[in-house]
Amino acid sequence: MCELTSMQAACWFGRSGNATLGGVAAHLYAEFDGQFIDLQKLHLALQRLYKEHPILRLSLSADGIANIMAEKAQQILEVDDFSKLSDHQIEQMLMQKREQWTHQKLDLSQGQTARFSVSVLKNNIFRFHVDTDMIAIDPSSFLNLMEDLSLFYEDPGISFSRPPNFFDWYQKIRTDPDLKKLSQRDRLWWKQRLSHISPAPSLPFIHQEFKTAKSDRLSTWLSPKERTALQQLAREQRITVTNLILGLFAYTLGHATKDHSFRLNIPTFWREPVLKNVEGTIGDFANLVILDVDMKGITTLAAFCKQIANQMLELLEHSHYSGVNVLRDLSRYHGSAQIAPVVFTAALDLENDNLLSERVRRVFGSMNWVISQGPQVALDAQVAHVDDGILVNWDIRLDALPKNGSRIYLNLSFIYLKILPHILSN
């Protein structure tokens, strides 16, 4: 039996329809478009992947009791051959598949933490569909999963140094005396600030009945030239690109909602190095910090972004106490459920220039579609290095927010990103 983290437990509870903005699995669905794939090699690579990463066999009972299932031979890879259909029929089938996979809940009771499928198209073109449940595979681990899968595909017999088991790592940080002291310190730090945490943003929530939660994706892309301009601007302002764009996002949202102050949900994926090679582990390392955004007294956008950057430094220093627990404490303080439904996730300050390695792109092609769902999340704004530029991706709950309104917010942010170098330099 394995002990769940606070985040894993929250995601498990959020699968029920009883939670605010619940009824969904915390999962990430991606599509890769490539040419020429050996299905038998891919099947064997998946078998190897499940052998090397036991958490892919994680099962959860109806009561949320976690166990790692024994290895067993199984057909992991699904294949849909659409190559004989007309172009119109292929488009219809792919859209139906996208809709179904976007809103599915993987069967964790049977150890289904991920789902893989290849849609075979014409002229040796294929689409690779990957859906991962974040209880077992957080977004940072999704990158490890794709990296290892492409490695096992290209070199089936390669010697592989198995990384630590995720639950061994979690047990280690739970019992480490120094980390326990830091957790207690940060619990008290947050307790003193509960009365000052701003409310959630005043989003234009709608109340429309859906049998299931409905999600959609809005996205845009900044060119390599624009990415370089933002990086240069961040250096000039002595902040990271992440904090630069986070400041811009907060500024845009504040103006759109007219809120004087509000809170944002900022996920982190820090892996405390208590075990060697934990950077290669697959698991749920997610935490979150609650960022207070104060729109009052803004003098310049540059000063605002620097203020956000300074706040983030302080928050990360006090992130040893789980953000999920902070929200629980906040709910007890107010006597009502408190959520942080607007999320900002960034993968910009990475060692690699792109989110996915050259090997992943060589084997599976370009990741041309990605969307996520999460309980108690109405809007998840993500930025990442993709194809040498910056992908700006907004995942929205259509049963909670009007799509047209969210599109306005995205367009505003896109405009700001385009003109930001000129704004801040002046």
From TrEMBL:
<dbReference type="GO" id="GO:0031177">
    <property type="term" value="F:phosphopantetheine binding"/>
</dbReference>
<dbReference type="Pfam" id="PF00668">
    <property type="entry name" value="Condensation"/>
</dbReference>
<dbReference type="GO" id="GO:0043041">
    <property type="term" value="P:amino acid activation for nonribosomal peptide biosynthetic process"/>
</dbReference>
<dbReference type="InterPro" id="IPR057737">
    <property type="entry name" value="Condensation_MtbB-like"/>
</dbReference>
<keyword id="KW-0436">Ligase</keyword>
<protein>
    <recommendedName>
        <fullName>Condensation domain-containing protein</fullName>
    </recommendedName>
</protein>
<feature type="domain" description="Condensation">
    <location>
        <begin position="3"/>
        <end position="353"/>
    </location>
</feature>
<dbReference type="GO" id="GO:0005737">
    <property type="term" value="C:cytoplasm"/>
</dbReference>
<dbReference type="InterPro" id="IPR001242">
    <property type="entry name" value="Condensation_dom"/>
</dbReference>
<dbReference type="GO" id="GO:0044550">
    <property type="term" value="P:secondary metabolite biosynthetic process"/>
</dbReference>
<dbReference type="InterPro" id="IPR023213">
    <property type="entry name" value="CAT-like_dom_sf"/>
</dbReference>
<dbReference type="GO" id="GO:0016874">
    <property type="term" value="F:ligase activity"/>
</dbReference>
